[in-house]
Amino acid sequence: MREDVQNAVNRVDQHRLWQRHMEMARIGAIPGNGVNRAAFSREDIAARKLLISWARARNFTVAMDAIGNLFIRRAGTDPHAAPVMTGSHIDSQPRGGRFDGIYGVLAGLEALEAIEQAGVKTRHPVELVAWSNEEGGRFPPCTMGSAVYTGARALSDFLEVKDNEGIALKDALAQTLAATPAAEKRELNAPAAAYIEAHIEQGPLLEQEGKVIGVVTAIQGLRWFNVEVFGETAHAGTTPLGARKDALREAIAVINALHELTRDASDTLRFTIGRMLVAPNSPNSVPSHVMFSVDVRHPDPATIARVGEAIESAVRNAAKRCSVKVTPTLHDDPCAFDAAVVDCVERAAQALKLAQRRMPSGASHDAMYMARVCPTGMIFVPCEGGISHNEAENARPEDLAAGARVLTAALLELADR
Amino acid sequence: MREDVQNAVNRVDQHRLWQRHMEMARIGAIPGNGVNRAAFSREDIAARKLLISWARARNFTVAMDAIGNLFIRRAGTDPHAAPVMTGSHIDSQPRGGRFDGIYGVLAGLEALEAIEQAGVKTRHPVELVAWSNEEGGRFPPCTMGSAVYTGARALSDFLEVKDNEGIALKDALAQTLAATPAAEKRELNAPAAAYIEAHIEQGPLLEQEGKVIGVVTAIQGLRWFNVEVFGETAHAGTTPLGARKDALREAIAVINALHELTRDASDTLRFTIGRMLVAPNSPNSVPSHVMFSVDVRHPDPATIARVGEAIESAVRNAAKRCSVKVTPTLHDDPCAFDAAVVDCVERAAQALKLAQRRMPSGASHDAMYMARVCPTGMIFVPCEGGISHNEAENARPEDLAAGARVLTAALLELADR
After folding, report:
1. Is residue A248 less than 8 Å (CB to CB) from chain B?
2. CA spacing 20 to 30 A to A230: which of A322, A400, B22, B52?
């Protein structure tokens, strides 16, 4: 390892990195060590302000784009070079943990600060990004900020999306943008030289094998749908079942059919109904409308394509008395990362003598969209019991710091190409 | 028919009664001619104030009890006689109509005004009551005001009940009580000489048979339960299905079992799941908690007892990976009305030469609780297509007035006993 790279790696501060996680975890804290920091919420805004305060203390430049993605840049020596980027997200699941997303943001900031403290000059700027609304828990779908930034989706597709309280994304986004008026304006689709995202694994593999670093090679394919069932409300006491159009009873028949469709003896396919809204949602009124989400994932392109294409017909065949509507809200084919970036991450982990393995990602990440526009890779660190999207999510300070060191070394290698 | 009774009946004003329905329907109006007037909401309070303004214009006395039941009294000649009561409720389903509940209130007010305008003296006071929270759509269970007034349930049982926004009943109730400070204080459990409730049928029978008046003889039995399923949230992309405790998947297995339990070839049994709440309700988080309501009804005491008793064990047997909790929230045995009151209603309809039939009620009503403490009956009038608990609920002005005339005559007969 080059001496200046080693100097920067040595500046990665495990204590500082951990303390910042704990400070961030107070914003949106919920019982059981959890975090509820919905996209574009008051808590999201507070966390952005805290991050910006740390960036300004180092004189890094701060910018935001039209969907609220937040960019923190350490300048390079070549004014024409596109940035080497790193980052993840600040928002969390409604009952999320202290590390999902925010780790990649704080590890990126740690890398920028370590490079700055070591005084290393880079040809490319090194830039941290906090992507907006990665979780999609409040405003579906997920990975929205990176999808819009990379041009995979148009911002206008999402402005009217409403949360469970009926608040439109455009209004929550406008509040978020207005809360940080000092940020420069960043254009969407600006070029990037490379992107590396650090993240907790959210699965049990690294912990089970005693590994510290996961060199991520790919992300499994993902399809999201909203299924709506339209019935008619009626009085629960007077209306015979034979005369009803009960949207919930029909939704359950539909879900039973989807469970049949997605049965997988190998337990590789992931099928989740995570969100369901019933209207009018009163004990003695027959439901007139049900909306539920479908999340289906598989690493094999042929399998995810086959299952994804079969969802709508399975829904239609199961619905007998009510009308249905199936809306695809996300379609991400399995994504393989750039071989050179994967090698670069692997070399950094080897040079730092950290136990590591190559592995695919079960979860989606913003890296999936960045992989469409620039050489991209990811770094995983272990999390306790593989538990994530849960208040009990936990990680060890030394593993988080190890990931930040690998990230620092890999960013510096890419930033001088 | 006695001449003074006929005078009072003649004073029932179809136009006034209809206009008041339309005026009330503007409070909480929703698209499609519907009404959303939740118990103890701003709309409920506004409707109460409007009703009180009409009562005060006739110098009727106004009182409220601890659960917000609203009493409007025309004095009798015997200061020791308990009131002959009539009434129904102001609150509506979230997507309710313009007649359910409010008809019985406005028909009662029409009767009081007609009696007052005719100058008929009665031995008993004649009293209108608007029961609090009959629907239970916001704060389960239903028929809460009459349950507490008659001592069937304690007010303290309900104070901590929360609506879907987390607002406690005690706070919404306190706001309602504070909004009408001029009302006298009425004690719970005060005696009543008799009770007659007028209501739209909420079923198709009267319309199909061309009848104007339903002489209600009984109410079918009803059981309510809240079923909770406790699982564990986890990441939808990384957690194998075999490792999940998915509360929604388990709830669906439970509901499938309940559908089996409640299968009835005669279509007499009513089984409804009207309310369901999923947490954390995010598309890419495995649900950790599901709550759903069960409403089951049958006119036969043995059948409703057998099904009601079997609910909990069916739930427990179907739940394999998650823990469950079954909470009975309402238990109303089938209720037969007082023969003398039923006869009195029938005689009044006959005297007014209105096409009528005896019939049981499929829906529950506050009359069920009043039947436990005094001689009680009900009057049904037709509603279009039997549709209720739906914005499309409709009724004809002449049928509403006919019901108010029968009510006036029956109240006067009972008030001189």
Report:
1. yes
2. B22
B261 — pLDDT class (breaks 50, 70, 90): very high
**Residues facing residue B289 across a β-bridge:** B230, B279
Sheet strands (E) in A280-322: 289-298
* Domain at B50, CATH number: 3.40.630.10
Residues B189, B149 contacting (CB under 8 angstroms): yes
Please tell me whether residues A110 and A25 are part of one structural domain.
Answer: yes
SS (H, E, C) B232-270: ECCECCCCCHHHCECHHHHHHHHHHHHHHHCCCCCCCCE
Q: Centre a 10 Å sphere on the Cβ of residue B42 and count the other Cβ atoms it contains.
A: 15
Quick one: tokens of A338? 């750039």
Q: B165 φ, ψ to 5°?
A: -95, 0
On whether both A377 and A307 belong to a single domain, the answer is: no
Query: Which chain B residues are Cβ-neighbours of A273 within 8 angstroms?
Result: 248-249, 287
Q: Which of B203, B240, B248 minimises the CB distance to A276?
A: B248
* Last residue in a domain, options A280, A302, A332: A332
Q: What is the pLDDT of residue B180?
A: 87
Tell me which chain B residue has its CA closest to the CA of residue A244. Answer: B272
CA B226/CA B290 separation, integer angstroms: 10
pLDDT per residue as tens digits for the range A200-211? 999 888 998 999
The verdict on B293 and B386 lying in the same domain is no
Are B250 and B335 within 8 A, CB to CB? no
Q: Is the pLDDT of residue B199 over 90?
A: yes
Nearest CA-CA distance, residue A87 and chain B, Å: 20
| Together in a domain, B136 and B187 | yes
Among residues B56, B48, B59, B57, the alpha carbon closest in space to that of B129 is found at: B48
Closest-CA residue to A357 (of A176, A201, A170, A173): A201
Last residue of a domain, one of B304, B332, B360: B332
Dihedrals φ, ψ of B361, to 5°?
-100, 130
Q: How many CB pairs under 8 A join A and B?
A: 241
User: Strand (E) positions, A144-269?
Assistant: 184-185, 194-200, 213-219, 221-230
With tokens 């960036």, the residue in question is: A55
Regarding whether B157 and B51 lie in a shared domain, the answer is: yes
Query: Which residues are within 8 A (CB) of B251 and not within 5 positions of it... i.e. 6 or more apart?
Result: B227, B229, B276, B290, B292
Virtual torsion, Cα B277, B278, B283, B288, nearest 10 deg: 170
What are the tens digits of pLDDT across the range A326-384? 999 989 899 999 999 999 999 999 999 999 999 989 899 999 999 999 999 999 999 99
Å from B49 to nearest chain A CA? 26
Q: Do A282 and B233 touch (CB under 8 A)?
A: no
Separation of alpha carbons B128 and B118, rounded Å: 18
* CB contacts, 8 Å: A386 with chain B: 238-239
Element (H, E) at A358: strand A356-361
SS3 B302: helix
Nearest to B28 by CA among B82, B99, B91, B73: B91
Confidence of residue A34 (pLDDT cuts 50, 70, 90): very high
Number of separate domains in chain A: 2
CB B124 within 8 A of CB B50: no
Residues A77 and A201 in one domain: yes
- State whether A18 and A143 are in the same domain: yes
Is the pLDDT reported for residue A92 higher than 90? yes
Partners of residue B335 on adjacent β-strands: B219
Q: Average pLDDT for residues B42-61, to the nearest whole number?
A: 97
Q: Are residues B309 and B366 located together in one domain of the fold? A: no
**Domain encompassing residue B14:** 3-220+334-415
The CATH number covering residue A273 comes to 3.30.70.360
